[in-house]
Design goal:
Blueprint: E1 8-10, E2 15-17, E3 21-22, E4 29-30, E5 38-42, H1 43-48, H2 54-58, E6 64-68, E7 76-80, E8 88-92, E9 95-96, E10 116-123, H3 127-130, E11 137-143, E12 150-158, E13 162-173, E14 176-187, E15 196-209, E16 212-226, E17 239-254, E18 259-275, E19 289-306, E20 309-324, E21 329-337, E22 340-364, E23 367-378, E24 382-394, E25 399-410, H4 414-418, E26 433-445, E27 449-461, E28 463-468, E29 476-480, E30 483-495, E31 503-515, E32 523-524, E33 531-544, E34 547-562, E35 571-587, E36 590-597, E37 616-624
Parallel strand pairs: 8-11
Antiparallel strand pairs: 1-2, 3-4, 5-10, 6-7, 8-9, 10-11, 12-13, 12-37, 13-14, 14-15, 15-16, 16-17, 17-18, 18-19, 19-20, 20-22, 21-22, 22-23, 23-24, 24-25, 25-26, 26-27, 27-30, 28-29, 28-32, 30-31, 31-33, 33-34, 34-35, 35-36, 36-37
Length: 625
């Protein structure tokens, strides 16, 4: 996915790149005028690529690291620019869905994949806009808002007993719209203890009125899966069940031609049951890990047009609660656990977060300046300030030279603070990690080409990591010394007119990273296991009418090591290559697809000794009216 967009519309003889507006700041802006590095993955690109899940399509995006532990979005960690899985903020239609228990749940999104309209990926820290969780980047998932009523049905099946069904649609009439969808998926697994059953549903109602809109939404996702070797290399019977619900309301109103506001309120609840060694089928049920988190978030932001440009300001309140038999501080009174009549939550923790933020955007001559700050008070970690500045210079009508500097911070999760078992020992005295990020770049956008070059530098203090030290049997959560990260990234998207190869579009992304810290005297599980180099290239063809072919090549070279135990020397991650292809044929309201993922049957590891799936073939059909 190129820096600017893969938002391309197939025409008779050529592909034109469309204008795209993004939420890189509180003030919406056309992407070419933003002084940040942003990727936009549109629906046309998602449908043309050989993917079926959110983590699948993000695998191709520039400088996004997807560390899967299983197939088809069962469990995957997402990071940006060398950060780790707890440092990326995930949004759904602007609603924050990160879980305070652990970032391993970040992609438990209560939205069926087929309901995603586009995905925005913002590179680099953005705490001045989005608050403490936006440490190394932001991924905003934007769901479909059909302009007319429609119906869509999908069915697919493939290797290792995998299957997927989806039914969704929309009803639109006189300013009122109802949009919903449900997805069921499963597999027997490619090796023992890797099977899964997953179900996701979402429903949204929206009413448009003269001066704005009111939107109500509900989403659910549940996922039961074998977790062979996920968190320890010697236990193949690991198993996990997760379930998440998201309820949200959004009111948008234009108070005057100059002043508009958005009030968002949402509540998310997440359940997690993790079984380290098949304890659920024995009389040792007390060894299970059972957690429940609840997050209430209310945000009111305003946009004001004035003689000096555009201003934005607002406030946010967020409450995070965990109940667990492992995490937090001892409760005064134990609480019953639904579904487990003989087990109780005996630990818990609650923390409140208050934010005030302001941003101003102005233009003078060829310059575009965005400057702002966010002040934050957390009941557990005190006061923090996140200033930032983005400056762009117009080099002609289609190109921009830009510079940005932003301060970011992340609070430790409840797992990092309190989990104490055979796989890790948390530290309740962990400090928040902090960073300054500087970025200098150049981007251009023409009718059929978009491109970007950027260099960046991130200085991190008190980085949080899971550390294995010699002679200590259980890894520790620690604040490690300062880490300086340097990087280069470039992205290009090119659309073609009619040609003999029937080539419609080419996408090329490359990123290079390095840090000044090495694993000397310890083993890093996450922070120093970054992608040193990543290359992704996509080709899109239309050889005959209604037949499309696409292919993606991905190369990854990861820093860091992993080890079986203290008696075994560590193994370097090294590099590997993956090839994914799709063929799709359209006939009236039907589209038939055939996908091959990991076509070359590469044997590779994204995390420790967790083997990744071999070649996986899937066929499917979609009906849409």
């Amino acid at each position: 996915m190129g820096l600017i967009s893969l938002n391309a519309s197939a025409q008779r003889d050529t592909i034109q790149l469309q204008s795209v507006t993004v939420t890189a700041g509180i003030i919406r802006n056309e992407i070419k005028n933003t002084a940040r590095n942003i990727t936009v993955i549109d629906r046309a690109t998602i449908e043309a690529s050989p993917v079926k899940t959110l983590d699948g399509v993000l695998q191709y995006a520039m400088n996004v690291d997807v560390r899967s532990r299983s197939a088809f979005g069962v469990q995957a960690d997402i990071s940006i620019r060398g950060g780790h899985y707890d440092q990326t903020l995930i949004l759904v239609d602007g609603v924050k869905v990160n879980d305070p228990q652990t970032g391993h749940h970040a992609l438990n999104i209560p939205v069926p994949f087929s309901m995603i309209e586009k995905i925005e990926v913002l590179q680099g820290g953005a705490s001045r806009v989005f608050g403490p969780s936006a440490f190394s980047g932001v991924i905003n998932i934007i769901t479909r808002q059909p302009a007319a009523s429609e119906l869509e049905l999908q069915l697919s099946a493939g290797s290792y007993g995998s299957w997927n069904t989806y039914a969704g649609g929309a009803w639109v009439k006189k300013g009122l719209s109802l949009t919903g969808g449900a997805e069921l998926a499963g597999s027997d697994g490619f090796i023992p203890a890797t099977g899964y059953r997953k179900n996701t549903a979402s429903l949204r109602a929206e009413k448009q009125y003269r001066s704005g809109s009111l939107q109500l939404g509900y989403g659910f996702t549940g996922n039961d899966f074998g977790a062979s070797n996920f968190y320890h290399p010697k236990f193949s019977n690991q198993y996990e069940e997760v379930a998440s619900q998201l309820m949200n309301a959004t009111w948008k109103h234009a108070f005057s031609p100059r002043l508009s506001g958005t009030l968002m309120a949402n509540y998310r609840i997440h359940h997690d049951m993790y079984d380290f060694d098949n304890y659920r089928n024995t009389d040792r049920l007390t060894l299970l890990n059972l957690h429940k988190t609840g997050v209430l978030d209310v945000e009111w932001k305003f946009r004001l047009r004035n003689a000096w440009g555009n201003s934005a300001f607002g406030a946010e309140y967020r409450n995070e609660v965990v109940r667990s038999n492992r995490l937090g501080e001892e409760l005064g009174e134990k609480e019953a656990i639904s579904g487990w009549p003989d087990l109780y939550y005996t630990y818990g923790k609650s923390r409140d977060n208050y934010s005030l933020f302001a941003e101003h955007s102005t233009r003078f001559n060829r310059f575009i300046l965005n400057v702002g700050t966010l002040g934050n008070i957390n009941s557990q970690f005190g006061f923090s300030l996140f200033p930032g500045l983005d400056l762009a210079y117009a080099v002609g009508q289609d190109s921009r030279l830009y510079y940005s500097v932003n301060r970011s911070l992340r609070f430790p999760t409840f797992t990092e603070l309190y989990l104490n078992n055979a796989t890790v020992k948390g530290d309740p005295d962990l400090k928040p990690e902090k960073a300054w990020t500087h970025e200098l770049g150049f981007k251009t956008r023409k009718s059929r080409y978009s491109g970007n070059y950027s260099v960046f530098y991130t200085a991190t203090e008190d980085a949080i990591d899971k550390i294995k030290r010699p002679g200590i049997a259980v890894p520790l959560m620690e604040n490690i010394d300062n880490i300086n990260r340097y990087g280069f990234e470039t992205a290009h998207t090119l659309g073609f007119s009619a040609n003999r190869l029937k080539l419609k579009q080419v996408v090329l992304n490359f990123s290079w990273l390095t840090t000044d810290r090495k694993e000397e005297g310890f083993q890093s599980f996450y922070t120093l296991n970054y992608l040193k180099q990543k290359l992704s290239a996509g080709l899109f063809f239309e050889p005959v009418r209604n037949l499309s072919l696409s292919g993606w090549y991905t190369f990854k070279n990861r820093a860091g090591q992993y080890s079986w135990d203290d008696a075994t020397p560590p193994v370097s991650y090294g590099s590997f290559s993956l090839v994914d292809v799709r063929a799709a044929y359209r006939w009236k309201q039907l589209t038939f697809t055939l996908d091959a993922n990991n076509l070359l049957n590469e044997k590779y590891f994204e995390h420790g000794f967790v083997a990744q799936p071999p070649r996986w073939i899937t066929g499917g059909v979609r009906y849409k009216i």
